[in-house]
Amino acid sequence: MAETRMLVLDVDGVLTDGAIYYSGEGESLKAFSAHDGYGLKLLMKAGVQVAIISGRTSAPLVRRVHDLGITNVRLASRDKAQSMYDLSAETGVDFRYMAFMGDDLLDLPAIRLAGRCFAPANAVLQIRELADVVTTSIGGRGAVREICDMLIKEAGHDIMKLAEGVNGQ
């Protein structure tokens, strides 16, 4: 197993529970887990890059990635494989050192390129069967945090020491 240098995440069903909410005015609303956000901040402090590839875009998502300090972002991606190629070219991270976390068939092109695949408990069966790790938590409810904690431990970091000076999200 190659060292993970970049964690690439889908959004709907991974960073969220997959539900799509609309306000009375038609504005898109999303709920994100503070635990997932804090895990991502700790993971980045441990030296693992984080990237987002989503087939959709929304103001709440743009705000969330900004608040977390994630700069490798591909929104409204119509071709997740191409987005992976672009991320690799721009960051210099080879696919074998990338891990992708997805939950549905739209994520297959990225999953097939990544060195590792993770799936939340609520992922469709086909994705769970391909995953190297399926979390016990569902997307938007701690699944990303489980993977962050696992990757931090694999990298040999003490999560308690990493937490010093890192503000929550």
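(the above was protein one; protein two follows)
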Amino acid sequence: MKRTLVVRRETFPIRGSFRISRGAKTEAEVVVAELHEGEAVGRGECVPYGRYGESVDGVVDTLESANEAVFEGLDRAGLIHLMPAGAARNALDCALWDLEAKLSGTPAWRLAGLAEPPRPVTTLFTIGIDEPAAMARAARGAHDRPLLKVKLGADRLIERMRAVRAAAPAARLLIDFNEGADFDALRAAGPELAAMGVEMIEQPLPVGSDSMLADLDYPIPFGADESVHGTEDLADLRGLYRFVNIKLDKTGGLTAALAMKNRAASEGFGIMIGCMVASSLSMAPAVLLAQGAQFVDLDGPLLLARDRDPGLRYDGATIQPPAAALWG
């Protein structure tokens, strides 16, 4: 029986707005790939990201160009050669995983070679950039979240972090600059940030400026996000970053992400599993990937005004593994 591909764009409103160093957004625009074979439907979701030269229209066009290959029996191995890494390949790769699980009756975790079913994971919760008082309110509102990731930019670094720490004295803290840090301010802030208990700082400098971290004797480890997409990037990160943030939309799907996770861990990097702001369908495959990771950042649906139904179940900061009705 032949397969068909349906591509759909969807929009999910964000609760309030979500701001990082390069801008703010009030909705999450996603693209869904659906594979139909008989009565079975496999789904995958991606988030086109302008920072990487992607757009919703471009991702839709890329996916629709795969119609003939899908009809002729495209599999995950073939997809790696058909499309470059990125959001479009992610949606179709995850749809292929989901369809295979539904057709075979074998859950995706077993298809992925995991030794046991996925366990619940604890996700961090993101505090977006805002006025210090507003960030403090957000941190107080996340009192049941044991790990907070604070988005920061080039200015008012210490003022904002003091406000968050005072509002959430028991929380573990990470910082994410999204390439927006001021190097001199970051260097000067190191001792106080360490005293606050900050455990990791994600992507402080723009891609291409990473070498500046080599000579920085810093009390907090750095994690790479925008500077790492696939295994080919790992060699350039040694001596600069201790952690790598693996996102399905960057690697181009679960297939490549599993390989990258294994490679990065074997080379001594700590693992962070990240996400874009999106629905539970985007997060579900990443829950498999998050097993055993040092940091899990899969809070995207918690930032939405509404999620899809059925969605992932969040018990506070704990994510339950996805039900088959959602994915896998």
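Reviewer note on protein two: The chain has a mean pLDDT of 95.
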